[in-house]
Design goal:
Elements lengths: L1 H6 L13 H14 L1 H4 L3 H15 L5 H18 L9 H10 L2 H4 L24 H29 L7 H10 L8 H32 L1 H15 L14 H13 L23 H5 L21 H7 L9
Keywords: Heme, Iron, Metal-binding, Monooxygenase, Oxidoreductase
GO molecular function: heme binding; iron ion binding; monooxygenase activity; oxidoreductase activity, acting on paired donors, with incorporation or reduction of molecular oxygen
Protein name: Cytochrome P450
Length: 323
């Protein structure tokens, strides 16, 4: 991925970097901050931004844009402890400008330099080198995305106004010599990579959920009845209600299964050489009719009679763990 990593500077994100010591350090920081027990510490930020989104959706004219803005608010709050503006927040705009080029640059075969990495050394003035000019512009956006919110958090720490966040916790562990993985550079890079890792999949998932509900009004009715029973129509639900909301939980699972966000690939009959980029066929796994009967039907009820096999296969929606 010469275009993305070498020219655009995205090799700071462990989602794109080669496996090695730095990758392991970044993964360690992510795991220690976001394993299930640790992630509970970020629930207040999630509840605050989720309730803000609920109010926005009541009057929105573009639910997709509002969901995208909400995702940015949530990620910046968790990553940096930054309170964003209700509209036109500069940090969200910086992050969006940094992440957006990935949608083009990460497409396999989009740039010849990814197949012939020697092309990254040709002079910028040569005919056909326009990709290098584009890469420089995109690198500047990525650098600003990585630096600006991190610097804001450093200033908040100095002013003693920093709010709980991944960056604050990481920098405190750096000061405490918590371990070799905890360096300021690693904390800075992992925090910046969170926006890339979480924004698009979160937005896509919620957008698909809304489209599915609009096409299945009986599901909306059942969810509303369950919520009304638990909240008595007097409050918003929160994480403590999750065990009392089995149908809502089933809706979330079915959305993840029904409209797969991951890429697809073919593998049978092909030899996979060392160093090959392999994309797991998430779509095929989550639409296997042996595991999920009538796989193209949006049916949350399938998860109310959950089998162990079905539960295990659903984990493909989140990835495949360590390689």
């Amino acid at each position: 991925m010469a275009m993305l990593n070498d020219l655009m500077g995205w090799n700071f994100a462990f989602a794109f970097m080669d496996y090695g010591d730095t990758w392991r350090q970044h993964r360690k920081l992510m795991h220690q901050a976001f394993h299930p027990a640790a992630a509970e510490g970020y629930r207040p930020q999630q509840l605050r931004t989720a309730r803000s989104l609920a109010h926005r959706l009541l009057t929105t004219s573009d639910f997709h844009a509002d969901i995208r803005y909400w995702a940015g608010q949530t990620i910046l709050s968790i990553s940096y402890g930054i309170d964003t503006q209700p509209r036109n927040d500069p940090y969200i705009e910086i992050a969006e400008k940094g992440v957006y080029p990935i949608l083009e640059a990460a497409v396999p075969g989009a740039y010849l330099v990814d197949s012939f990495s020697i092309l990254k050394y040709i002079p910028d003035w040569m005919p056909g080198a326009s990709f290098k000019k584009k890469a420089k512009e995109w690198k500047a956006c990525a650098d600003e995305m990585r630096a600006r919110p991190f610097e804001a958090t450093l200033q908040n720490i100095k002013d003693k106004s920093a709010k709980p966040s991944f960056t604050l916790d990481g920098l405190e562990k750096v000061a405490q010599n918590f371990g070799s993985a905890y360096t300021e550079e690693n904390v800075k890079s992992v925090a910046a990579g969170m926006y890339q890792a979480g924004s698009d999949t979160t937005v896509a998932g919620l957008s698909v959920l809304i489209l599915a509900l609009l096409d299945h009004p009986h599901v909306i009715k059942k969810v509303q009845e369950e919520l009304d029973l638990v909240t008595e129509q007097t409050r918003f639900p929160d994480f403590g209600d999750e065990g009392c909301l089995p149908y809502l939980t089933a809706v979330v699972k079915e959305t993840m299964r029904w409209w797969t966000l991951g890429p697809t690939d073919e593998y049978k009959g092909y030899r996979i050489p060392a160093g090959t980029l392999v994309l797991g066929n998430v779509w095929a796994i989550l639409h296997d009719e042996k595991i999920f009967p009538d796989p193209f039907v949006y049916n949350p009820d399938r998860f109310l009679d959950e089998t162990k096999t079905m539960k295990n296969y659903l984990t493909a929606a989140w990835g495949f763990g360590r390689r």
